[in-house]
Structure formats: structure tokens, C-alpha cells
Write a structure and sequence with these properties.
This protein is of the alpha+beta class and 234 residues long. It has a five-stranded mixed β-sheet with strand order 5-4-3-6-7. Helix 7 packs across helix 8.
Length: 234
């Protein structure tokens, strides 16, 4: 009798899913639950340990993070594997299909930054900042510019490069960096997006810059933010 009840429960329709053949609606079935997209975002720059993911997602509980990781794994968006010695730890990473969602995040970021209610002073995780430095970059605003910047954000290292109007981002150290910037993601965001003078951040010990400070000082000009959208129908 118990087996019959369990079978019936498994066969019952999932009321959380949209009864809709639209592929966009199905995408929301896959990653539309709260916290699912931020989890995916944090994996867009490579595998992460559970503890690292939780630390980067302010406000998420271990229980909810576990549930979202399990749901995304069932959906085929991410998987888990154990790193070889000496690390020998389990990490989560996007599947090749999961990585194909990167342009979705970029399109959503460019669209949502125009929201009249967007608050750029809220926290940035290191990965979120780096992705924004690719998404919000304007090639037209950086014609003829080149540069290689090493960013040390909290306990993580990233790089940002610009050549021929193309931006590259990634984890780790790069050789021959023009500038090395050390500080919190929010401190860097305050310079790039918030209009804070670089000298002010350096004087307050919020940022340290080695090398080409002029390149870092020009960064905000590469990321002109669009005007907010009207908040009512005209």
C-alpha cells in the first residue's frame, strides 16, 4: 500500500512548474526558483566548493543552497566531482550546457541595470563584479585602449584584460599586468560605477593600486551606465 502511495505521489503533476510549452517558461522551470540563478552565476567562472559558494551568496542558508544545487544537478545544469590530490575536495561546476547560459546573464544584466529601482550600492560578490566588468563594458567608450589588470578581491585572484575592443576575464594570476588592484568588490564597484574618485578610495585604505594608476583611473569611462527606464507608461 505504501509503495502505491509513493508511486502516485511521483506521478502527480508538479504544481511548481508552468504548464506551458514555451521554452522561456521552461527555462524558468529549470532555474526560476529563488537563489538558483545566483548559484549559477557564481559557477560561471569555474568550479566552486560548497563553502565558497555559501560565502559568496549573502543570506543563503546551507539547507537552501543544498536544495538549489541538487535541483540544478537534476536539471542537468551542473554536476559535482572530486578534485585530485592534494586537494581531494568536492566541487560543483556547470555542465557544458550550463555554461551556455552565460549570454542570458549578460542580457539580463544589461536590461535590468536600467531599472529605476536598481541599487548598485548593494553587495557584489567577487564573481558578480568580474562578470559585470564584462557585461557593462562599452567598446565605443574604450577605442584605442589596452590594458591588463590583476584584481585581488578578498581571498580570490582574477584578471581583466582589454585589447582590440575585446574584454577578457578569468580566475588566477596573469603575467605582465599593467596594474594590480587589491580591495573589496564593493570598493572597486564604487570607483567603476559609483563615481568615487580613485584617490579617495586609496586614501581611505579601501583600495591599493600598484603599477599604472592612470589605467585604473580611466576604468569608469569604459563603463557608461545607461539612463534608467521610465517607471510608468508615457
Amino acid at each position: 500500500m505504501k509503495l502505491q502511495k509513493e508511486t502516485k505521489r511521483r506521478d502527480a503533476p508538479d504544481k511548481k512548474r508552468y504548464d506551458d510549452a514555451c521554452a522561456a517558461a521552461h527555462a524558468m522551470d529549470l532555474f526560476g526558483e529563488r537563489w538558483a540563478m545566483p548559484v549559477m552565476r557564481e559557477l560561471l567562472m569555474g568550479p566552486r566548493r560548497f563553502g565558497g559558494l555559501k560565502a559568496s551568496l549573502s543570506g543563503i542558508s546551507a539547507k537552501v543552497l543544498t536544495e538549489r544545487l541538487e535541483g540544478l544537478e537534476v536539471a542537468g545544469i551542473l554536476g559535482r566531482r572530486k578534485l585530485p590530490p592534494p586537494a581531494s575536495v568536492q566541487v560543483y561546476e556547470l555542465t557544458p550546457w550550463g555554461y551556455e547560459a552565460a549570454p542570458i546573464f549578460q542580457a539580463m544584466g544589461r536590461w535590468a541595470v536600467r531599472s529605476p529601482r536598481h541599487d548598485p550600492t548593494r553587495p557584489f560578490s567577487p564573481v558578480s563584479l568580474m562578470l559585470s566588468l564584462r557585461t557593462m563594458f562599452s567598446p565605443a567608450a574604450a577605442v584605442g585602449e589596452r590594458g591588463r589588470i590583476q584584481l585581488r578581491l578578498e581571498d580570490q585572484s582574477f584578471f581583466w584584460t582589454l585589447a582590440n575592443g575585446q574584454v577578457g576575464i578569468g580566475r588566477g594570476e596573469i603575467a605582465d599586468a599593467d596594474a594590480v588592484v587589491t580591495g573589496s568588490p564593493m570598493a572597486i564597484a564604487s570607483i567603476v560605477y559609483g563615481g568615487r574618485p580613485l584617490g579617495d578610495a586609496i586614501s581611505a585604505d579601501d583600495l591599493a593600486v600598484e603599477g599604472d594608476a592612470d589605467l585604473v583611473r580611466r576604468l569608469p569611462t569604459f563603463f557608461p551606465l545607461p539612463e534608467p527606464a521610465p517607471d510608468r507608461v508615457s
